[in-house]
Design goal:
single chain; alpha/beta; eight-stranded mixed β-sheet; 14 helices; globular
Length: 422
């Protein structure tokens, strides 16, 4: 059996959904689970609505919901010609549920509220694509992923309850394979109390990996708007080249340093079962793309370039000029862990420590609040992190020319630079 994942760009409008349906139709006779994200930009809109609910700006939330509903209805009308089809009722019901979120749940825990609101995007998109596939006379089962993907209560970044999830997928999904095409949502799960959780931005890749692992898929395919895994972001580097083969370890390294092509948690569930991951283009669906598997890394792999913008560089120093030794390092790192802040670059000297993180004003303020009583803290905003895997002198010289480098870290395989953005 196969597990497919389609991201937001692949279902952004009616024409895109038709293209997805054409791809699915080519594999209709196989055992198939299809994981689908929210329509392009819908998650961003829902994040704004969650903020409006939290601030109790209900008029702003209502206007955005109305606009979002109209966008989805327009797509449905292009795909489903029967005005009495049940998809119109189902969609209306889901949007009414979204409108009532503020009344049903208290707005004092933003992460909880966020998950109840932002999760709706995947429910919208999968209802629409399932309804369209049915008009094409395909046998489809719409599956609410929250009924099988079970998590703890760490909203926005929960851990999977693998034992319960495995039991539910094997009981509720496996018997349907080969009878129906399973259409389900990425990104979402639920707690033991059936409150919705989200698995982190771009978490649909991870959802697909969960299904692949438990159902022991032959392969997982991520369909994207690029021809495969590229050695750099093509928007920043027009001459970026496709890498035909990668191993699991290199894919993990790439995602760790910020490459956006795959969600960081995706690889491990696949590696555990030796399941190959294919990254293919939904635009050129006949092309092979990139395969990630348990294979030696190609000798001719090009330098892999990752640039992370919107970074903040924090300098910590001890107030009593004591060494930045294990006790101080452990204290600072523990606060990062508590606030769930990922460090992108870390470097320490005798009495100081530098840490580069993604900019998030709320978390930054919390971090400073907790650590400022014990440490001097200097904040540099508007910096970038350049990471080059499999670097050579030529590419390093080319990419660092004219940059005011603040931090450099180098190993045999990887070099990183932190510099101010001009």
């Amino acid at each position: 059996m196969k597990v497919f994942k389609f991201g937001g760009a692949s279902v952004k409008d009616a024409a895109s959904m038709m293209n997805v349906a054409n791809i699915i139709n080519q594999y209709k006779d196989l055992e198939l689970v299809v994981v689908i994200s929210a329509l392009g930009k819908t998650t961003n809109a829902l994040e704004e609505i969650a903020q409006d609910f939290f601030k109790q700006d209900l008029d702003a939330a209502r206007q955005k919901i109305d606009k979002l509903e109209q966008q989805h209805e327009t797509i449905v009308k292009e795909l489903v010609k029967d005005a009495d089809a049940r998809i119109f009722v189902e969609l209306k019901k889901l949007f009414n549920q979204l409108r009532q979120t503020n009344e049903l749940f208290k707005a004092d825990n933003f992460n909880f509220l966020y998950d109840q609101v932002v999760s709706m995007g995947e429910l919208f998109s999968t209802r629409i694509i399932a309804a369209y596939l049915e008009t094409l006379k395909l046998s489809v089962l719409w599956l609410d992923a929250r009924t099988v993907v079970k998590t703890d209560t760490a909203y926005r970044e929960p851990k999977i309850n693998w034992e319960e999830t495995r039991e539910r997928i094997l009981d509720g999904v496996k018997p349907q394979l080969g009878k129906k095409i399973i259409i389900t949502q990425g990104f979402i799960g639920s707690t033991s109390s059936n409150h919705t959780t989200t698995l982190g931005r771009e978490g649909s890749d991870f959802t697909a990996a969960i299904f692949s692992n438990i159902l022991e898929a032959e392969e997982q395919v991520i369909w994207k708007d690029v021809p495969g895994v590229l050695n750099a972001n093509p928007q920043l580097f027009p001459n970026a080249v496709k890498i035909s083969k990668l191993n699991y370890e290199e894919a993990v390294e790439m995602t760790y340093y910020g490459a956006q092509v795959i969600h960081p948690k995706t690889i491990k569930p696949l590696q555990n079962k030796n399941i190959p991951l294919h990254v293919r283009s939904f635009i050129e669906s006949d092309k092979p793309g990139t395969i990630i598997h348990n294979t030696p890394l190609p000798a001719d792999i090009p330098p892999i370039i990752v640039i992370k913008s919107n970074q903040v560089l924090l300098w910590f120093s001890t107030k009593d000029f004591s060494f930045m030794a294990e006790k101080n390092l452990g204290h600072i790192i523990e606060e990062f862990s508590t606030l769930r802040i990922k460090t992108n670059v870390m470097q320490n000297a005798a009495i100081s420590m530098a840490v580069c993180i993604d900019y998030n004003e709320a978390k930054l303020s919390e971090l400073i609040h907790f650590l400022e009583p014990q440490y001097n803290i200097r904040v540099e905003k508007k910096v970038e992190v350049l990471t080059i895997r499999h670097y050579n002198d030529k590419i390093v010289t080319e990419l660092t020319a004219g940059k005011d480098i603040v931090i450099t870290q180098k190993t045999n395989d990887t070099v990183q630079f932190v510099y101010g953005k001009k």
